[in-house]
Amino acid sequence: MNKSRQQGVLIFATPLLLALVFIFVTLLIDGSRLLMMQSQMQSIVNSAATAAADEAQACGGTDATWASMQQRALLAAEAAGFDGEASDLEILPGVLRPGETATSPMRFASRNPGTEMAQTNATLVRYTRTEPVSFLLPQKLFPPITISADAVARKEVYATLSAAGSTATVEDGLLGMLIGSVLGMPGYSLDATALNSLENTLIGLGDLLAALGVDDLTDLVDEPLLDVLDAVVTLAGGTATPAGRVVDDLAGAVGLGGLNASAIFEVLAEPPPPRQTTVPAYDFVVSLVMNSVRASNQAGNGLLSLDLDTSDSALLNSLVGSESLLADLDVSLGLWVDEPPKIVIGPARQDSNGQWMTRVAAADIALDARIAVDLSSSLVNTVTYWLNLMSLGSLDVKLLGGGEDAIQIPLAVRVGGGEAVFEGAECAKGTSNATSFDFRMQGGVANAESGAIDPVTQQFVPEPIYAPILDVEAKFLGLVTVVDMDVCLSAEADVDIGSSASYESLETYNLYCPGGVCETAGLSSTGGIDNVDVAVNNLSLLNCAGSASSGEQDILDELSDALLTPFTNLLSTVLEGVVTSLVSPLLSALGADLGGMQLRVLGAEQTGSQLVENVVFDE
Q: What is the full DSSP assignment across 42-101?
């Protein structure tokens, strides 16, 4: 009886066990098939996302478009084995950013491909398909499932940019006096060796981070500025080197103690760790000096005063000489800094508000220049001769314009608004080592007029050009002096400096360079000093002693008719020479340009392909 029952159970259980084994083996095989399919799909989206990220705004240059991103994704997917419809791939442009902490997952935020492509640095590709659980088992019992794989790839290149000028334009006497003024050390000077050392001493940003004990560039800006100075001195070779001594001296400059490194550096987004980017010590020093001047201005000390003469200024000395109209020049400068130049590190894309993230501003400066001009003796003698010849002996006229009678030119210059906007970057791709950059550059708004800068309000105060210009004597019958007066010149001047926006491209910039030091590349905007128009207005001749008698006025009128045009031309020539050969180089050395914009590319770092699977989405 028991044996019969056992045989009955076996007859019933055996087919069931065989069926279960069949189902289990089938599911095992199908599970392996689905896992393999999932792996293949993941490989496809990884390839597609990596290729498509080349067309994100931060990597694809100015020609990056949504259509080109889609095309690259599809071509890469097909090369990886994709054989479905294009609609099976969901392609989303967006922004991939780190999580809130170092251990948090990266987060992706999609962007509208029609209106927000300029904000993108990454691409998400999602591949979804429906597959039967098994080809052998009934679908009613095992309905098809949806398999999905996604990946986000991020690629962008970060540029390190500066508008702090360079030693190609710097006036060594000015920079030395500036440093001396902010240190309270009159007589401080920089020689050519020190200037070359500042330009040629390169501070590696990676070395700077290591010296400060910080992990990345976004942490650098919060470091105390004096700690950064100490680290730079060490990296520059200590005080035994000219560059190290200058930076060490600046630790005692006015107003730097309460600042952090954000006064010098501006870091946008999340740049990769700097491997080769270096910053010339010169850019660092100019920004330090200008920050100190601003601190002095804002502390109620008024304009920072500097005095230059031909004995200690190569720029002034170049304007005088045997073939020049000028015999001597003395210049007193008052400097007000609204915004110092910074070293800016950022990508070529827009933020969530549609504004370009990386903008490099030139220095915003007001310059009060008091220029004393001595006319050359050859000019004085020549003009005196012709004036007496023209008067036919009725007047004894002598041209002045030297010593106590030097022409006094008050010139107020305001420069600001110069800006370079980083609008395009093409990443190095494949085996290429070259990147390229595109900038929209706007020359600074420059305004120069005869006048002064109020040291309290920083407002323009009109003031004429004024100088004793002629010594005139008239005698009756050549014997009795009837008029003896000094004639003064009074005039107003306005200097129009052209400025316009332009697009400038750096076609090739290497990411990795022999010896680990890449070249500094320079770009210049159009306009500026090549488009200077000097207008001398309301020129008049006056009796220096005050009101003129009728006889004196007749002589003044006669002289005005003869000399109005020559004196206007003389002043225009002198002013144009002063602006182009003196004021413009001085401002360029401080990171400001008259109507133009100078930009230097100091380095570039590329993120490479950052690939994230199963990404976390921003809400």
A: HHHHHHHHHHHGGGSHHHHGGG--HHHHHHHHHHHHHHTT--S-GGGEEEEEEEEE--SS
In tens, the pLDDT along 223-279 reads 999 999 999 999 999 999 999 999 999 999 989 988 999 999 999 999 998 988 999
Report angle CA 299, 304, 308 to the nearest 5 degrees: 170
Buried b (16+ CB within 10 A) or exposed e, 51-65: bbbbbbbbbbbeebe
Model pTM score: 0.84
Say which residue the tokens 């009101």 belong to: 547
CA dihedral of residues 383, 386, 391, 393 (deg, nearest 10): 110
Question: Would you say 124 and 615 are in contact if contact means Cβ atoms under 8 Å apart?
Answer: yes
Q: Tell me the three state secondary structure of residue 340.
A: coil
Please state, in angstroms and as integers, the Cα–Cα distance from residue 601 to each residue in 64, 310, 508, following that order. 22, 34, 11
CA distance 189 to 311: 13
pLDDT, tens digit, 9 for 90 and up, residues 187-212:
888 887 888 899 899 999 999 999 99
Tell me how far apart the alpha carbons of residues 226 and 218 are, in angstroms, rounded to a whole number. 18
